[in-house]
Design a protein that fits this description.
single chain; alpha/beta; 5-stranded parallel sheet; 5-stranded antiparallel sheet
Length: 383
């Protein structure tokens, strides 16, 4: 049964409206003043209010305004009773939020018709409000679950490494979950593996695949005694697009041999590693470690190529994903070479800078607060 509140300082008008509405089996509430009616409305939350315009103290216009400002009562259908029907009065009533008008003296049939129409609209608005509240609740639940998933994914990433070889990581997903991933670990006391990969797309689907790839590589440590290009070929066989939701990924994969100071590496469509040594830094440039290869999963039976280079100490190697230089270009010519120039500038600093400072520098240059893509930056120092 719908609740209807009558607010009118005239007891005769209240009696007439009450009798008409009770004859239609509505539950009727009454208030003599605007203040009393407003208080009763907050307590009972009626579906519809019939309120007189002119009352001592708080008039109908103010009551209507207060009702419509309330988050709990904003959908309540509000009918203003008035003895005037001029355009000016109607505009004033509409501006305060009134949904309908009734002119005194009240006609029974007209009142019932307006009440029925108002209740239909109220019920429709209430259903929409409840649906919106349910959607919001589900959204908050989903966001909480995604936050837990993001925390779990980040917990799988390795901590900074220190020693003769130091590795500092920086991971910045463009959403709570990202498709970029990295890892580094010792195959044995002489060989250190490090890589960065970038799964196509964003969000949960990309993050799940990146975790699967990371776990697969960790589980295949024995097979990683092979050359880097063979590891990529094994990845390509295991992670074809047809079996993994049409997703592919790029990767830069390297193995450092401590005793020989030799770095072997291979790439599958990924940005090059950027190596700074005293010699190349003196020349004002950086060495780009890259090899030919298409992203993993796009084609079957792809052959990849391993390359190698001697690491002079001290040297610094940067591995990264393309989100750091493929940004909305407020600076028209910002590209990989400009990003490398930023790395070179920071490598010249008298003291080693935090990776966050490099990220902040890129954001300042391009006038952006947030990257469009996930971002990974590894700084590997050989000393």
């Amino acid at each position: 049964m719908s609740k209807i509140l009558i607010i009118d300082d005239d007891s005769v008008t209240r009696m007439i409206v009450r009798q008409i509405l009770q004859a239609q089996s509505y539950e009727v509430l009454e208030a003599e003043t605007g203040e009393e009616g407003l208080k009763l409305a907050h307590q009972e939350q009626p579906a519809l209010i019939v309120c007189d315009w002119q009352m001592p103290g708080m008039d109908g216009i103010e009551v209507c305004y207060q009702i419509k400002q309330s988050s709990k009562l904003s959908t309540t259908f509000f009918i203003l009773l008035t003895s005037q029907n001029s355009v000016e009065h109607i505009v004033t009533g509409l501006d305060c939020g009134a949904d309908e008008f009734l002119t005194k003296p009240i006609q029974s049939d007209e009142l019932v018709a307006r009440i029925r129409a108002g209740l239909r609209l109220y019920q429709s608005l209430e259903q929409s409000r409840q649906l919106a509240a349910a959607i919001l609740s589900q959204q908050k639940l989903l966001e909480a679950e995604l936050a837990e998933a993001a925390a779990y994914v980040q917990s799988l990433l390795p901590s900074p490494m220190s020693g003769a070889i130091t590795i500092d990581p920086y991971f910045l997903p463009c959403r709570g979950l990202g498709g970029d991933c990295f890892d580094y670990y010792w195959l044995d006391e002489n060989r250190l593996v490090f890589y960065v990969l970038d799964v196509s797309g964003h969000g949960l689907k990309a993050a799940l695949l990146s975790v699967s790839i990371k776990n697969w590589l960790r589980s295949q440590i024995e097979s990683q005694s092979q050359e880097p290009h063979q590891v990529l070929e094994n990845l390509n066989f295991a992670f074809g697009m047809a079996e993994h939701n049409d997703q592919y990924f790029t990767i830069w994969y390297g193995v450092y041999h401590v005793d020989q100071k030799m770095l072997s590496y291979a790439s599958a469509g990924h940005p090059p590693g950027i190596l700074f040594s005293d010699a190349v830094r003196a020349a004002g440039d950086a060495r780009r470690l890259k090899s030919v290869g298409t992203p993993i999963g796009m084609f079957e039976k792809i052959q990849y190529v391993s390359n190698s280079c001697k690491i002079q100490t001290p040297s610094t190697l940067y591995l990264f994903s393309d989100g750091l230089y493929e940004v909305r270009q407020t600076l028209r010519n910002w590209n990989l070479e400009h990003f490398i120039a930023v790395l070179f500038q920071h490598s010249q600093a008298p003291q080693s800078l935090e990776l966050a400072q490099i990220i902040e520098n890129i954001q300042a240059i391009n006038h952006i607060r947030q990257f469009d893509d996930d971002c990974v930056l590894l700084k590997i120092q050989f000393s």
